[in-house]
């Protein structure tokens, strides 16, 4: 079956759609470009589907490449038969292919190899036939002191070693054993004796078991981390009796004789010495990959939501990186994020120069016409917020806390050093906090996504897979919003479809040398930015001050002529068409259909003319934490508080209530109904109302609820939270989740 037919069947789309997508991908087109500007070719496959085609195509090509290597290896051994070649060609997974190849795979010297060298293979074949023989008499024929076969048992042991290897290398049996491990296997973890105190954070797993088939990703990764840190012992196997029974059904004949007894002994040896370790390793890898996919899916979705957080927009902003002993670093930024001023103020202990700090803030607000004040939410964040709010600033000045996770990473980065080589790290951090308020997407792309405060076990998962997923997420977010070419940083430009770091730098250099771009066509003058890169990137780049109004929109330059024809047919200019709903309603899209332009593209053009360059992100909303609740010790059970969702996991959501320690809203407390996926209820940066369930100051743990009455089921007299039930989480629904789910079909 050709790639397009197989992928089409798996994705439940047409083969022609897949084939067109493959051709575009092979031609260098990006996922955002294909899904946005080639809808006619792909039958309107969305971004998730296009990415799924790309990933599955790579898997199939990798499988074919491995098949070629396997065939070559077996052929060089002179062992390739027509039936074996057919089996290899028909292998649909890498696991099946490796099972077939196992008997022919060059291997180190094994017990079976040694037995063959002693000439015991004919005896093994005789025994494995399971016919009735005079066992001792036959085995005695192979006694040979020179070959170190001194007794009948030596001969039988060597024969069993060979039989055990045959059993282990049986592709059909391995497939069935793999299914047994997956369906009936159990994770069993226990603490390493003597490490109970050191391993206290893994207490839940000191004596723990659960089915492999249903173990959620966060528990799989937690157990594996405990094992890696040498606190836990972890097994992943079915009951031994079940495995041996399966093997006997596959191998043992109906007869009962001495040969069969020897084969049974070989089966036990094959399982314990060969098959069990091999299968357990494979299953652990499979479950790790599945757990990685779940964790990466959660992480990617959180990053996407964070990147697409509501921007304040182009305002003059004061940003403060709070601190006690070292003071607060204050910066003033212009509407494009340019640094206008910086200084340190000391409103808190131990210096407590509050009056002086107040004069500075008031004076700078007036001098620079500050429209918003962004305050980092770390150490001294709430105290600094209270100080600023006490200054009696104009009501028009927005005062808000900003999540500063990753700001210190940015401030020490090459990006920050390049932009502000002479500034202190803390000043750079304050700049990042202010810019994050103005445009989260533009600022967060400068930071490694792993450092921006969201995710689940991100350091435990496959780092290459994590990077690929996060890169996809950032690319998707950047191209969904669009990029203003005259103000964007090279880091932001690098994520635009078709560009990358080199062309992004070239664009910035060209802009610095020649002034702002006045048209998209000017991009073709940028060194090394050729027709292909222009085709891929142009639609996602905006030029706000361009002469041609279409350069401010997401209409691709290849369709400008079409839009101009629409305007000409109505006897108006393109600008008038964009300003008038009445004119746009008079356009009959059917008149503009062609071999290359279909109704999806025409409808996209019409939508874009109505709202050129529209930002898909939500409008910014001012948020305030509860006054007087600044530390975990201020929290009381039953207290109702405003909060902001900072992180979403498979088991719930973490919420910042302004006490420097996020609280957990467990899956069972996200709503007054059963919740399977936290993303059904909350998003990162969402403003929520929560009730405090319990507070453990010593362990810095806060239990929260979003239920209307979280204590209702416990009776009016009881105010303590009930135990949190374990759930089986299988989140799905968002873009990142759909992509991971589609990938799951290919395992």
What do these coordinates show?
- A five-stranded mixed beta sheet has the order 6-5-4-7-8, with helices on both faces. A five-stranded mixed barrel has the order 11-12-13-15-14. Strands 2-1-3 form a three-stranded antiparallel beta sheet.
- Helix 1 (3-11) packs across helix 2, helix 5 packs parallel to helix 30 (735-744) and helix 9 packs across helix 11 (152-168).
- Among the domains are: 3-104, Arc Repressor Mutant, subunit A (Orthogonal Bundle), CATH 1.10.10.650; 118-302, Tex N-terminal region-like (Orthogonal Bundle), CATH 1.10.3500; 317-438, Nucleotidyltransferase, domain 5 (2-Layer Sandwich); 632-735, Beta Barrel (OB fold (Dihydrolipoamide Acetyltransferase, E2P)), CATH 2.40.50.
- The protein has 747 residues and is an alpha/beta fold.
């Amino acid at each position: 079956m050709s790639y397009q037919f197989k992928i089409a069947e798996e994705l439940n789309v047409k083969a022609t759609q897949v084939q067109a997508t493959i051709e575009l991908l092979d031609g260098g087109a990006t996922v955002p470009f294909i899904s946005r500007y080639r809808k006619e070719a792909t039958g309107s496959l969305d971004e998730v589907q296009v990415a799924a085609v790309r990933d599955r195509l790579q898997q199939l090509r990798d499988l074919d490449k491995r098949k070629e290597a396997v065939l070559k290896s077996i052929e060089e051994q002179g062992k390739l038969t027509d039936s074996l070649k057919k089996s290899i060609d028909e292998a649909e997974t890498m696991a099946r292919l490796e099972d077939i190849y196992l008997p022919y795979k060059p291997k180190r010297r094994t017990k079976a190899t040694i037995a063959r060298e002693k000439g015991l293979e004919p005896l093994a074949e005789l025994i494995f036939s399971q016919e009735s023989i005079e066992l001792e008499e036959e085995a005695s024929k192979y006694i040979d002191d020179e070959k170190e076969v001194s007794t009948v048992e030596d001969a039988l042991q060597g024969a069993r070693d060979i039989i055990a290897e045959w059993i282990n290398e049986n592709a059909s049996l391995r497939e069935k054993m793999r299914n047994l491990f997956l369906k009936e296997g159990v994770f069993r973890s226990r603490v390493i004796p003597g490490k109970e105190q050191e391993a206290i954070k893994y207490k839940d797993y000191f004596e723990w078991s659960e089915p492999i088939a249903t173990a959620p990703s966060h528990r799989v990764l937690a157990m594996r981390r405990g094992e890696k840190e040498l606190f836990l012992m972890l097994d992943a196997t079915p009951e031994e009796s079940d495995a041996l029974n399966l093997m006997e059904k596959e191998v043992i004949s109906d007869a009962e004789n001495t040969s069969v007894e020897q084969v049974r002994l070989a089966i036990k040896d094959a399982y314990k010495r060969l098959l069990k370790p091999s299968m357990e390793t494979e299953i652990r890898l499979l479950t790790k990959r599945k757990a990685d996919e779940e964790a990466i899916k959660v992480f990617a979705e959180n990053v996407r939501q964070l990147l697409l957080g509501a921007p304040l927009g182009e305002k003059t902003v004061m940003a403060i990186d709070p601190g006690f002993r070292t003071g607060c670093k204050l910066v003033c930024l212009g509407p494009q994020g340019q640094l206008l001023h910086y200084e340190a103020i000391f409103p808190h202990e131990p210096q407590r120069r509050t009056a002086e700090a107040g004069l500075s803030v008031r004076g700078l607000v007036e001098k620079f016409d500050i429209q918003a004040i962004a305050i980092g939410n770390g150490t001294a964040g709430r105290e600094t917020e209270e100080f600023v709010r006490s200054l009696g600033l104009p009501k028009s000045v927005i005062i808000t806390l900003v999540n500063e996770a990753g700001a210190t990473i940015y401030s020490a980065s090459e990006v920050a050093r390049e932009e502000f080589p002479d500034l202190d790290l803390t000043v750079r951090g304050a700049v990042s906090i202010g810019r994050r308020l103005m445009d989260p997407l533009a600022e967060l792309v400068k930071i490694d996504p792993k450092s921006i405060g969201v995710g689940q076990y991100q350091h435990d998962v496959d780092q290459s897979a994590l990077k690929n997923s996060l890169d996809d997420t950032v690319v998707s977010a950047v191209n969904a919003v669009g990029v203003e070419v005259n103000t964007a940083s090279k880091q932001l430009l690098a994520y635009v479809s078709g560009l990358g770091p080199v062309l992004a730098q070239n664009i910035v250099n060209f802009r610095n040398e020649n002034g702002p771009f006045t048209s998209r066509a000017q991009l073709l003058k940028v060194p090394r930015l050729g027709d292909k890169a222009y085709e891929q990137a142009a639609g996602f780049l905006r030029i706000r001050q361009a002469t041609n109004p279409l350069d401010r929109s997401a209409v691709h330059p290849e369709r400008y002529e079409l839009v101009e024809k629409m305007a000409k047919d109505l006897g108006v200019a393109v600008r008038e068409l964009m300003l008038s709903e009445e004119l746009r309603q008079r356009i009959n899209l059917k008149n503009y259909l062609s071999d290359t332009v279909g109704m999806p593209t025409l409808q996209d053009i019409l939508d874009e003319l109505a709202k050129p360059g529209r930002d898909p992100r939500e409008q910014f909303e001012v948020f305030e934490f509860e006054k007087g609740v600044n530390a975990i010790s201020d929290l009381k059970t039953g207290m109702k508080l405003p909060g902001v969702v900072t992180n979403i996991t498979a088991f719930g959501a973490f919420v910042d209530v302004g006490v420097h320690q996020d609280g957990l809203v467990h899956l069972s407390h996200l709503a007054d109904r059963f919740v399977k996926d936290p993303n059904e209820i909350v998003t990162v940066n969402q403003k929520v109302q929560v009730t405090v369930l319990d507070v453990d100051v010593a362990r810095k743990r806060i239990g929260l609820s979003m239920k209307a009455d979280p204590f209702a089921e416990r009776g009016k007299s009881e105010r303590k939270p009930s135990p949190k039930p374990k759930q089986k989480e299988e989140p799905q629904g968002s873009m990142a989740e759909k992509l991971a789910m589609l990938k799951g079909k290919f395992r």
